[in-house]
Amino acid sequence: MRAWILRRQGRDAETVVLRRGRIYILPTQLGVAYAAMVFAMLVGGLNYGNNLGLAFAFLLAGVGLTAMHHCHGTLEGLALGLHTTESAFVGRRVAFRILLANASVAQRARVEISSDDARAAPADLDAGATVESVLTIAAARRGPVPLTRYEVSTRHPLGLFRAWAVIHPDYRAIAWPHPAPRGRSPPAVETDTGGAQDRARGDEDFVGLKPFQFGDPLHRIAWKSYARGNGLHAKQFAGTDVTSYVFDWDSLAGLAAEARLSQMCRWVIDAHDRGEAYGIRLPGTTIAPNVGRAHREHCLTALAVFEVPAGHA
Amino acid sequence: MPEQTSIAMRGLGWVLAAMGVALLAHVRQLPAWASVSLLVAASWRYAAAQRGWALPPRWVRTLAAISALLFVLAVFRTVNGVQAGTALLAMMAAVKLLETRTERDLTVLVFIAYFLLYAALLRDQGITRLPLLLAGAFVATAALHRVHGGAAGGAPVTGLRRTAALTWPALPLALLLFVLFPRLPGPFWGVAVGQSSRTGLNDEIMLGDVSDLSVSGAVAFRVRFDGPIPPPAQRYWRGPVLHEFDGRRWRRPLAQSFPQQSVTWIGAPVDYQITLEAHDRPWILALDLPAAWAEREARSTYDFQLVARQLITRVTSFRLRSYPAYVAGVELPTSLRNRDLQLPADGNPRTLALGRELARRHADPTAIAGELLRKFRNEEYHYTLDPPRLAENAVDEFLFDTRSGFCEHYAAAFTMAMRAAGVPARIVTGYQGGEFNPLGGYLLVRQSDAHAWSEIWVAGRGWLRVDPTAAVAPDRIERGITASFADAPTLTRIWEGSRLVGQAQLVWDYVNDFWNERVVRFDERLQFSLLQRLGVDAPDWRTLGLGLTVVLGAFFIGLSAWLAWTYRPPERDWPERLHGQAAARLARRGVTRRPAEGPVDYLHRAMAHCPDLRLDLEAIRELYVALRYGPAPANEDLQRLKYKVGRLRP
User: Fold this and answer.
1) pTM score of the predicted model
2) ipTM strictly over 0.85?
3) Cβ contact (<8 Å) for A66 and B559?
């Protein structure tokens, strides 16, 4: 069934607009019970020759069929696309933020998305609204966490039918290595006196305050200034003597491969929190020292997707 | 946890409302204890939801369920049949309310409400049920939508509007299915009607009892004559014939093993169609005396009563032929003669003496009858629907003391006196009279037209009808039951005397008759004749199948179109529309607009993706921005944009 649907539809582009051909619909348990009830009324009406009873059965059958169309219509024309993925450490949950866009003049109620491992709460999409629905998946193993199949479904309006469509995206979030406990300090300190650093990244002499930006290390926040009600600022230092670390895979000889990655992961987190510049060196991959959130993610992702060379297991 | 409960219980109010409408449909027939149980359970559950009370533990609920079942069994001795089934359903709904906490529970309650509404239709198919049916279906569906529809069902008005959107397409579909769905000749299994609560003729007369039939204006049956309508004096509608008399009570014997008696018809026949309201008995009230009928529908008894082969549990009609003039039963078998001479060993001595006295004076049975009728006419006898109570020797008391009563009293006294005089005699019950409805061209006979008369057997002439009531109140026979009380100006009479009210009653009855004839009795015959009138030459089941297919197909297409319109995109202005056209063309190159992407960002991405279109897209972007955000959008810019988009060939 799954393979058949995949063959039929193929992989999906980044944005999907649900068309008639890819929306499936089946009665729910309640729908089956409802149909059985209407059928019993029909048979009873025929048996007793009770025309008004028959009319009642036909009326309910009509309501059921109308509800079926409404259920289908709730999905038809709905647009879906990925907003962002959120990576996480192993043991936490990665998130896929999926946008549901209703470009029509009517409300689409109780639309929910689900995958094999996750289910998002049903969302009501007002006319013209775009709503974000989040699928979170437990990050069990280091490396990419793909989302290659999810369903968007609804039981609106009477719960008698479930209409659904299968989306085959090519989304991936990253499960970063589980950080090792604190304790082991980075082995080597490399001093880089090159001119590549600008003055903002020195930490010798205090030169002033600048408005806080995400990515600034927490320990540089000018808490006194914040307490005076001046808003959040970061302290700026100047200096040419910049200390930066390079965390080296080879320096952790003696540890198992995954333990080495965990340890490097811990160092990266701590160095980032302290506001220090750092880089990593893995067999085949080297990332030059730098600072900032993007750099942190870059390093963590490199650790996450690192393939342990043969002989290091 | 309470949060969760309140979300699940979102539809409770609506579900209770649906249950209320369903209960309303049954309130007249359902035993009071069932209605009250359901009302109490509903009120309690609503209060519990409002105040956050805990639901009763499992053992209480189980106990309630078992005792409800046992109670219904104890009262009805069965759970089969409409009455017991309805009561059981209502009690189960009450028990279910005690444990209602999930969406599924609420749904079960809605289904019970649907079923209760349906059961109400099994009992009564009158036109007054129609609004109840529609309102009930609507409210129950609204409840279902409230339970399952998400926030859409939030505000009551929105919820109702959405429910209307769900129900109105069902109306034309239901109408067409009703017309086209094949009607199978049922029933497939036995019809359990349970205890009857319908009014109708009984097969016994108890002197001194109050007759409720005489005061009921309910319709008994309607008759359409092929030819002219027989005069009032001939409108005797024959029901059960009573032979057994125990001093107070006249009964129809259970054993009916007498040979059929011969009849010679005289004069012209009367052909007609009689449509009987449901009365849960098999009697067909044929015009005295029925001569021809459909054998598979009815049979005639030895005493010329027409009996249907099934109980008449719904509006049913028969085509019959009767002869108002006849000579019936000239040969009287001894067994039958003895039965119709039977008198209780003791009791009513004065009537017995009167009979014997008359027999001494006259040899001719008709002379005896004439003497008795003269007695009724000349002495102080009164016709009243509110006679005094009678005790042990009921006939004696009536005939010699109270001297006032209605048709049953006169027929009973007359018949007993004739038997005492040695003349075989019996009571015939049925209806007499009827009111012509000029709108519908039919004769309407009400329960209040119920009547009883006598038949005496005369050698050489057979059974003769004698109506002793006619001797006391000739108007009763000539002008109907209301006319016989012309001297009593009650409020009811003044009300009914009003011309306007009379006309309104006629119109209302015509509507009811139309409903009965065209809707309630709609069957294969009417179905095919309707199709023929619509232009189908020889309709058969294939016509119906084709019709159903077409109707369902049209329904699906129409509904899809309507939904497509419901979920249409908003109207866009020209720049927006042209941008959309450009996007549609670019989508062929794999650049689809993302849900949260702005129009300009999208064009930039398209430029990066399709370098060959860069110049065109650049122009489109500039024009779009100028038209959209520029200070004075120029018409020529719009024309240029149209041209550019039209020329875009990815």
Assistant:
1) 0.71
2) no
3) yes
